[in-house]
Each structure stands twice: as structure tokens, then as C-alpha cells.
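Hi everyone,

Forwarding the result from last night's run.
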Amino acid sequence: MKVAGLWRYPVKSMQGEARDSIRVDERGVEGDRRFGVLDPGSGTILSAKKEGRLLEARAMLVGVELTVRLPTGETALGTGPAVDAALSAWLGRTVHLVEARPGGRGTFERPADFEDDESEPVRWQGPDGTFVDSSPVHLLTTASLRAVGAERPDLRWDVARFRPNVLVEADGSGCVEDAWVGRRVALGQVELDVRRPCERCVMTTRSQPGGIPRELDILRHLSAAHSASLGVLARATRGGRVEVGQPVAL
């Protein structure tokens, strides 16, 4: 097995950036979900689970400086009043772009019924100092994507739907990473403790740039055939740099 792709998502639920290498520590991937869009009215960090339009924007980090590109064509840098004004105008409500801080936890929402965006929202708090939903590193294998693609070839199983940090090239046509739960995985010098399967939500069904359509059957199928999970969540026990092409071993 080897690392086939790496991504980080500087702003929660926006498009992120493919990387040739990433740094990983116990807090997760450096720069990943470092920022979020705060709705001061509800006190929540917006997510594409409720606000699907966030997937139309893209966030990138150049060094430590954040760049956000909106679907309007507007580009905004960093945080502050100018970025807040651009985001608020685009989304049609007052929002603030905020940075995750140690000692702070984001509050998130998703619809209770993934088929009804207006259903009663479910709320939860994320971990300290980051805007990830739960465990900080998300792995997915090419074998799993082949497996679900074979089960439902009529659907678009793009890796972008699932937003992994690490895509692992693996032989086979089953969900091989399911067997990694409770084990440790080495990616070059980095060692990860695989905690649990990655439970999927309405985000996987959202339309995205690049011609990815809205498809509720993505989550319907995962719910029926894979306990609504695909991929695994992990935490680093030994940090360092991961590069595309590096070997992956249990």
C-alpha cells in the first residue's frame, strides 16, 4: 500500500487543497479545519451539513496566510471585517470567519433526517482547538471506492465527496480499512492509531464544483450496505511529514 493523495481543508466545509506532503501531529493535519464560518445568531460553526453552499468556495493556505475564493469570483485574504463582509454578502446573513483556538470547541449542526434539510437539527461539540467533527485524521482507500463503485456503478463515487486527508492506494475491492480499527498504521515516519469507522452524513450527497451532482442515493446506499460508514478516523501517536508515494503499513 502507498499514499495516493493528500488534502487539507483550511476552512471547515469549503473546498480544500491537494498537497504533495502534509505535516501531522496529535492535533491532526497542520492547517486542516483551522478556520470556520461562525453564525453568531445560532452560535454554531457553519457546515455543509446544513449550509451546502460552503462547498462552492475554496480555501487555501500560502504559508500562514489564508485565501478564500468565493463562487462570485471574489477573493478574500485572511480574517477580519473585509472577509466577513464578503462572506456575509454571499451567504445572505451576518457571519464571521474565525480561527480555532486552544481551549475552544466549535458547535456544529446537521439535519436529523439527511433527506430533509429542514428537519430538526442535531447539535454536537467538536474537539478542543480545531474545527474537525471528531477524530483529526481521516483515511480512505482506493479499494473502498472501487467496492462501492461496483455496488452502485450508477452513482458518482468521487473522492471529493468524502474529503479524506489521506487516500491510500490499496489492492482489492472491499472496504479493507474497516479491519484497521484498533490497529496502528504507519505512513512513512508518521504513526496513526485508527479509532473507528468514519460515519457518513448528508455532506456526501451534496453537489460540488467539478460536475459532482446531488445524489441522496450515495448515503442511502452506505446506510443500507455499510452501516453508513466509509473510511476510518485516526489520531497520530507519532507525528511527522507524510508524502504522496510513501509506503503505508499496518
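Residues 185 and 215 are 32 Å apart (CA to CA).

Cheers,
N.
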